[in-house]
Amino acid sequence: MNAEEARQxxxxxxxxxxxxxxxxxxxxxxxxxxxxxxxxxxxxRTDITAHVLAAFVAKFREANPEPPGKPQTGPARGFxxxxxxx
Length: 86
What we know:
Distance between the termini: 72 Å
Number of helices: 2
Strand order of the largest sheet: 1-2
């Protein structure tokens, strides 16, 4: 992700309460790739991007556990009952 995407990811993580520090993979190159880390110190941090992505997906699964169904495009199965001709 780039710096703008990182800003959006950081805001989303804070909104959802998911811990992580979004920072450049290379502290000397803010224009390069960004990742999510467990801390801000470049010497003592661990990349947790994959774990954060899993936590993000889990948050949304809690909100809507079933995947959206396929919209019905044709007739449904059922019975046709003719009108009573009495």
